[in-house]
Amino acid sequence: KVVAVIMVGGPTKGTRFRPLSFNTPKPLIPLAGQPMIHHPISACKKIPNLAQIFLIGFYEEREFALYVSSISNELRIPVRYLKEDKPHGSAGALYYFRDRIMEEKPSHVFLLNCDVCCSFPLQHILDAHRRYGGIGTMLVIKVSAEAASQFGELIADPETKELLHYTEKPETFVSDLINCGVYVFTSDIFKAIEGVYNQMRETCEFSSLMAYLKRIALFFFDFILNLAASNYNHFQYATRSVPADFVRLDQDILSPLAGKKQLYTYENKDFWEQIKTPGKSLKCSDMYLSQFRETSPHLLASGDGTNKKPMIVGDVYIHPSVKLHPTAKIGPNVSISANVRVGPGVRLINCIILDDVEIKDNAVVINSIIGWKSSIGRWSRVQASGDDNERLGITILGEAVTVEDEVAVIGSIVLQNKTLNASVQDDIIL
Ligand code: GDD
Predict the structure, then answer these.
(1) By C-alpha distance, which of 100, 73, 68 is closest to 84?
(2) Structure pTM?
């Protein structure tokens, strides 16, 4: 038996996803027509003998309740949301729920970050892990040397694939091989985390003892002891700058275990991207849509402008409830969620349209994300400034934004419930 854990973080994370993440947790924002977290969950579903999937986060339970019950029914596999009382860090959160995770005595635990987009080759990682031994195997990928510094950089033995060295987001270049945020572990991972907790406790006890001794001895040896204590404090700040009950998987576990024949790597040859900004989510939506072309072509729309069906270009997802005028032209890379209405002559390119949006006659939407219940007027234009796909380049409309007729919204971010009756460019509308 195996189980999977997906780390979903909480409301203090995902702030770069505003205004979309104001009312919807980032892991539930749709990519390719499905919540972000749906993609790793459906990859987990394919692992033989998967007993349960746990989502661990510090969002309120009610925010995940509906999704968790509908996905459990749909996939016929128990998906549970486990809420931390406060953030414990990526390894601390796993340890906090160790009894729940190990309830069914799984032989292996998969651990996935919720904000990565890839084909999740989980069975391959598990097979490789069984060959290597050790307590864990992580998915790694080569990226450009410039991009590598945003991730955990690592060195692996080219023959044995052992993780030899690991540094999280280093300031100076270490390697173009990086951590993808997808792992498989044996139950020994909990012992490793416990080891770090014990060390931290000892450090705390040692530091209170030092403080006590300092107070007594100040009386006699003020100068000498102050010197020793200040050295000790310096050491403490240099090694940890986070609360004592917060354990990060990367810095606190992977780094010290590297080079000890405990951790191994499996190189990903397929697509991989991290999803930290809305611009990245457009790119990831595109990657998942092209994956659908291979794995689930029935999810992609088709049409050539005849037989009362609109013209579809490239990979496009359209929810079955969408009302689409046959003279609209859609794609490539467009996902349209439930109950959207698209009027005559509308043109949509490289965009995500969320539930209940209305796009009126002859409007154009390019390189943008349109929030739930928004409305785009006749002959209006919503697009990025230039070709830049990054955060400020693309246009994002928050929930329930109204763009009136003949208005252009270019390279702007518009907060929820705003009405735009004049054109804006490269602006943030609060
Ligand atoms: N439940 C919970 N509690 N989840 C958390 C917590 C916490 O306290 N802290 C972080 N997470 C979740 C995040 O939601 C995310 O899914 C994952 O843990 C990792 O988040 P971070 O620790 O913020 O790291 P990161 O995303 O900047 O970088 C990590 O992932 C990269 C791959 O995307 C690192 O492991 C990098 O080395 C790696 O390259």
Answers:
(1) 100
(2) 0.90
